[in-house]
Specification:
With about 475 residues, this protein is an alpha/beta fold. Helices cover about 30% and strands about 25% of the residues. Bound molecules: flavin-adenine dinucleotide. Belongs to the class-I pyridine nucleotide-disulfide oxidoreductase family.
């Protein structure tokens, strides 16, 4: 059963990049076809990424706060965890959002085709349907936007086929709470899922190859996070797994490295060691699109590949693998196709770990400022001096940090570690995009007492130290 359709624009993949691009194309009057292999729209982010992880972290936070409020003279009984109830809450959140996307696609007359798309040349793909067995549809297009995303990386030395070896998708199913969980990798995904399982009752070890979690994030920020989590996790820094052997009574893991412990048994192992783009699976060899050996597609600032009518966005082009980056790139690709002269040139792409406490960064880190030879100065405001942080019992693990160009006094980066850091970061992102200087931020009246006051305070600390205002 073969059929044919034609779109002015074909979008492959309905993750945040793909649906944003498709919707913008439709809004700009282009006849748009969106191909997605899964029955729901939303890609990794909505189905098995950003959203379900945040639903579970919300549950974890409630448990954490119930335990923590002891300090303030309130005692809750130990929470009873109804795991199917937790899973149902998470699924309900996801469904609400993915249903919303379907409705929006309909409203805009975007044609959604369910199946796997593969290029046959630079103007056609074949879609193997995943909704109707054996059905194929040929989709021809004037322009195509590839937004096929990424998946968890697999390593040859890890027995991924064992059901106790998890990737993030398995961890998000919350089918069981392992007594002992090993998290491999100290990045955002590993730490977020580790946080969830620790609150649900697992004893969690985190094995990290380097000397700190969140590689690339400034040491002073990470130090506050690590100190606050010393009891939550058993961190094994500068350590690697040497052998992972499934046995009847658990997963046997051997370690190597400076601080390697004796071999341990785990009930589950979460592999969170990066993501691999899907660029090698979509028939790009039948086009002139340039794709590297990992599967990353190269594009210019208009998201255009080497082939002038084929664009690529999101995780599949590399850079920070984040939903909001994909969305903005999607808008650029759509607008370029519609004939607008636009470019993807952000001054900052924020990144947030929704851990306890949260770690949020935007613009340059101190490491990057140093690498780039910028004459910079750092201003930090510790939350031990924040009235709101003290009143809310979160002052022990919080800091707001701004990085300024000493010559121009412009803010070039910022990081916050602390409760709600992710929400507080918005102000810094805007300040960076608008090229604010220390005076702009410091003289902005921030409400008292708030946590975001700390951003104003940090700017004032720098501003106050300036004697030679330009
Ligand atoms: P994806 O979301 O990967 O979507 C690609 C889509 O293309 C998929 O639906 C796939 O099925 C489809 N597809 C692939 N190949 C084909 C084909 N040949 N034919 C048809 N369809 C195809 N980012 C954040 O910004 N904030 C977070 O809090 C956050 N949390 C995360 C938590 C987890 C556990 C994970 C795994 C990721 C998280 N991310 C987060 C990252 C975020 O999910 C990705 O950056 C984002 O989804 C990338 O969007 P995308 O559009 O590039 O691709």
């Amino acid at each position: 059963d073969a059929s044919e359709i034609k779109g002015e624009v074909l979008v492959i993949g309905a993750g945040p990049g793909g649906y944003s691009a498709a919707f913008r194309c439709a809004d700009l009057g282009l006849k748009t076809v969106l191909v997605e292999r899964h029955p729901t729209l939303g890609g990794v982010c909505l189905n098995v990424g950003c959203i379900p992880s945040k639903a579970l972290l919300h549950v974890a936070k409630v448990i954490e706060e119930a335990e923590h409020i002891n300090h303030a003279g309130i005692k809750f009984a130990k929470p009873e965890i109804d795991l199917p109830g937790v899973a149902a809450y998470k699924s309900g959140v996801v469904k609400r959002l993915t249903d919303g996307l379907s409705a929006m696609a309909k409203m805009r007359n975007v044609t959604v085709v369910q199946g796997n798309a593969k290029f046959i040349d630079e103007n056609n793909v074949i879609v193997e349907h995943t909704d109707v067995e054996g059905k194929q549809t040929k989709v021809s297009f004037d322009n195509c936007i590839i937004a096929a995303g990424s998946q968890s990386s697999k390593m040859s030395f890890i027995p991924h086929e064992d059901p106790r070896i998890w990737d993030s998708t398995n961890a998000l199913e919350v089918k069981e709470v392992p007594k002992r969980l090993l998290v491999m990798g100290g990045g955002i995904i590993g730490l977020e899922m580790g946080t969830v399982y620790e609150k649900l009752g697992s004893k969690v070890d985190v094995v990290v190859r380097g000397p700190q979690v969140m590689t690339g994030t400034d040491k002073d920020i990470v130090k506050i996070y690590t100190k606050a989590n010393e009891k939550r996790f058993n961190f094994m820094f500068k350590t690697q797994t040497q052998a992972i052997i499934p046995k009847a009574d658990g997963i046997y893991v051997e370690f190597k490295g400076e601080n390697a412990p004796e071999p341990q048994m785990y009930d589950a192992v979460l592999v969170a060691m990066g993501r691999t783009p899907n660029g090698l699976k979509i028939g790009l060899e039948n086009t002139g699109v340039e794709v590297d050996e990992h599967g990353f597609i190269s594009v210019d600032k208009q998201m255009r590949t080497k082939v002038s009518n084929i664009f690529a966005i999101g995780d599949i082009i590399g850079g920070p693998m984040l939903a909001h980056k994909a969305v903005h790139e999607g808008h650029v690709a759509a607008e370029v196709i519609a004939g607008h002269k636009v470019f993807f040139e952000p001054k900052q792409i924020p990144g947030i770990a929704y851990t306890f406490p949260e770690i949020a960064t935007a613009g340059l880190s101190e490491i990057q400022a140093k690498e780039q030879g910028i004459n910079y100065e750092v201003a930090t405001f510790p939350w031990t001096a924040s009235g709101r942080a003290i009143a809310s019992d979160v002052s022990h693990a919080g800091m707001t940090k701004l990085i300024f160009d000493k010559d121009t006094h412009q803010v070039i980066g910022g990081a916050i570690v602390g409760d709600n850091a992710g929400e507080l970061l918005g102000e810094i992102s805007l300040a960076l995009e608008m090229d604010c200087d220390a005076e702009d931020i410091g003289l902005t009246i921030h409400a008292h007492p708030t946590l975001h006051e700390s951003v104003g305070m940090a700017a004032e600390i720098f501003h106050g130290s300036i004697t030679d205002l330009p």
